[in-house]
Write a structure and sequence with these properties.
The protein is an alpha+beta fold. Helices cover about 50% and strands about 15% of the residues. It has twelve helices and nine strands. The chain is globular and about 65 Å long.
């Protein structure tokens, strides 16, 4: 398999080929706003030094941290510093993951499980980090006879390992997001009321702090604005509802968009296709 050097290239490749792709990155790409994509993402930090906002959790990124992001998780990588930031990103089409799973072993488990308080981040031991890199190198370095089978075999072993870590997890392995207490409360409030109209003025009154201050602490903690965060979360919810078969108008209401035309515009800009087309693709 060819090693890629762009997250966007890896994402497009996995979606187009309904397979998986691997990017090994050293330099920062242009930072994407809060976003969602139609593939799973595994983010392995080698050097640390950044911060992730995933759904309503903010995580510090340290060397050896592994993040598991599914196709409905809105997420944003904050640029904390300008230092070298080495990481490996694996993008996976969900259909491929289902294809290589078995009745006994669900390799999707790591992207959807919330057992044991699991959120999105695993802190790997040195031995687990070495195993992770071993499987990645095996996938990327094999170009001879039977390359496709070796790729799939190493990929399968990698995700058996990741799922085993989660099944056998303890509090030292699974890391919950930590953040400013006020922003924690704001994020919780937004997510509990995301299907209703929420304005910055309303949040200001709810938490007894000024509009300018609430915007400032939210941006400084999460790296994105309140409005961008709410839009991304609502689109994430909309995608999940459309995949379940709900109609576009009903999804607009359930995901908290007040104006139907704004919903169509925001969804199409974020996802690349209209809600109707997305629904058709999901329910073929």
């Amino acid at each position: 398999m060819k090693e890629l050097n762009s997250c966007k290239e890896a994402m497009l490749s996995s979606i187009e080929n309904k397979y998986f792709s691997i990017a090994h990155l050293y330099k920062d790409e242009k930072a994407m706003e809060m976003h969602i994509h139609d593939c799973y993402e595994v983010y392995f930090s080698i050097s640390g030094g950044k911060q992730f906002l995933i759904d309503n959790k903010v995580y510090d990124i340290n060397p050896g941290d592994l993040f598991l992001i599914n196709q409905y998780d809105s997420h944003y990588l904050s640029q904390i510093d300008k230092e070298l930031h080495e990481r490996i990103v694996i993008m996976i089409h969900p259909d491929f993951m289902k294809k290589i799973s078995s009745e006994e072993t669900d390799l999707d488990y790591c992207f959807h499980s919330k057992d044991h308080g699991f959120a999105h981040k695993l802190s790997l031991t040195q031995e687990q980090q070495n195993r992770f890199l071993f499987f990645v190198n095996k996938i990327l370095s094999n170009n001879g006879y039977g390359r496709d089978l070796v790729e799939r075999s190493a990929f399968t072993e990698l995700f058996v390992m990741i799922n085993s870590i989660i099944h056998n997890a303890n509090n030292d392995t699974i890391i919950s997001g930590t953040y400013n207490d006020q922003v924690d409360a704001i994020l919780s409030y937004i997510n509990k009321n995301i299907n209703s109209p929420i304005s910055i003025a309303k949040l200001s009154k709810e938490f007894y702090i000024s509009e300018s201050y609430i915007c400032r602490i939210f941006k400084s903690t999460t790296g994105t604005t309140i409005n961008k965060y709410m839009t991304a979360r609502r689109i994430s919810i909309a995608k999940a509802l459309l995949a379940e078969g709900y109609g576009v108008s009903e999804v607009c209401e359930k995901s908290g968009f007040v104006d139907y035309s704004n919903f169509l515009k925001a969804f199409t800009k974020s996802v690349g296709i209209s809600p109707k087309k997305y629904s058709q693709n999901c329910n073929k």
